[in-house]
Amino acid sequence: MNDVGTAMLIRGTFVTLPSLAALHILTDYLLGVDETGHITHFSAANSPTSKALLTSTAVPPIQIPQGSFLLPPFCDLHLHAPQFLYQGTGLHLSLMQWLDEYAFKAEERLDADPALARRVYTRLAQRLIENGTGTVLLFGTIKEGTNLILADTMQRAGVRALVGKLSMDISSRPSYVEASAEAALSAARSFVSRCKETVAALPAHSRLVAPVLTPRFVPTCSNELLEGLGRLAAEQSLRVQSHMAEAHDQVEWVRSERGAEDIDVFDQRGLLTPDTIQAHCTFLDAAALARVADRGTAIAHCPLSNAYFSAAPFALREVLAAGVRVGLGTDVAGGYSLDMMSAMRHAVTVSRMREGKRRLEHAGENEAAESVAIDWKEALYLATQGGKEALGLGRGSGSFEVGAPFDAQQIQIFDAEKGAGIGALDFFDLELGESPDVSIEMVEKWWCIGDGRNRVGLWVQGNRLELSVLVGHE
Ligand code: GUN
Ligand code: FE
Predict the structure, then answer these.
(1) Is the N or the C terminus of the chain less surrounded, counting Cβ atoms within 10 Å?
(2) Minimum-distance ligand to the CA of 107?
(3) Is the pLDDT of residue 315 over 60?
(4) What is the secondary structure of 238-259 as a DSSP string?
């Protein structure tokens, strides 16, 4: 332990998520953070090292009140930034119709109007912060400049963001497409270097945004484009994101137009690697899922979007059992909510319906089979640490390890002074002034019925972000 460089101390209860199977509540711990936003110390407040740090550090610790706790922020592993413009619209359509009638038009509007793009992306960043999302993997639009606005907006807002300029040289909308595979490849290359340039002058710890190669999905990308992107990814060690085997109509489209399965199209072009995050994967059979596991590719599971567009639920438990890294995504605007609390709840709900169906279908014959349901703790892991692991950013951050960036959200579940729960949380049966420690039942209650009223803080890389900027907005 070394107190040199400790810029901030925080003392209170921490909820840690070291693995899918483990959630710990650490009561009265002390955490130190240095000037670069990295954790320098984490142990019980009454340990000798903590006591020494408390006496030797000039700044007093920030005291997290009883009834509150810190836990890692959410990581949204799949969100279409421009579609925030029309969030919650047109969800009666099938995926391919919805893309034609809403998505492409909205994205084109932002590409034509930088002021609108700035406005939409600024509000999006504010909403992400308000909802406790500290890290996000974004799909943008086709045009370079619009994606640079997106990167700049997230960087300024203090949100960790991986920004994907869309690559698409095929489209149902003639005004929203790149001219050729060659043009699309040089645009992708250019965006990668310009996005990196926007943060190049900052010290490494302050660089919150990075580019990610983003072939939209198989129907909008020629094989030549996909091949070039696979080469570019390998050459520059870049992350890749796309949609794979998402929906019944999309899978049929690829079979009839390309005579292939999504997974083969990606795999043959070097786009199924440990640096790849594929959204959905609802229409993959066991052999295909085994191939995803073998390639080390991660999956962004978006249960709300699946319920509207996919026509089949994702085999979450089986995929986790196969060792695939999985995070949760909102898929705004295929999903209408950018709140990761709702993504977690939907993931659990869908998994429980799958488990119920499995039991009914195999009544009496398969009693010993493992449940395919996931529980709230597992969902909380996937919504926070799972996403970061998928992005290769996870080391140590789920358990506030020394050396990890300090990213956290502060949740208040009851007010000891008033003897009352916060927001939607009632009936803790507290006596006035009573301050019991945060228990597992209290965290579960927050997980089930908590909302934005319970979120009172968000830090990314040691910086505290302003949660309430939207109060009284125009
Ligand atoms: N597949 C290709 N593009 C999209 C999109 O914008 N949203 C969703 N949900 N799926 C897609
Ligand atoms: Fe999507």
Answers:
(1) C
(2) 1
(3) yes
(4) --EEEEES--HHHHHHHHHHHS
